[in-house]
Amino acid sequence: MVKPDQVEAMIKEQLPDAQIQVYTNDGEHYEAVVISAQFEGKNLVQQHQMVYAAVREAMDSNAIHALALKTYTPASWAAAGQPV
Q: In 13-39, which positions are buried (b, 16+ CB within 10 angstroms) versus exposed (e)?
């Protein structure tokens, strides 16, 4: 079973500047909020592809069954009323 902090570390390896929050209820289905300046100029699909690339190996091996994502640039996170 992959722990949320391990998922966070995988994403952080690909997006070192990211602020990441990972949640799970059952150890197979995860939700992540990822805030990264590397998302600037990328559409939502491209942002998600960047995160999925970071966890691809764990998903391919079914260690992670599902990952729901919410991705933001620092500006879009702040615009949503959240502190950066």
A: ebbeebbbebebeeeeebbbbbbbeeb
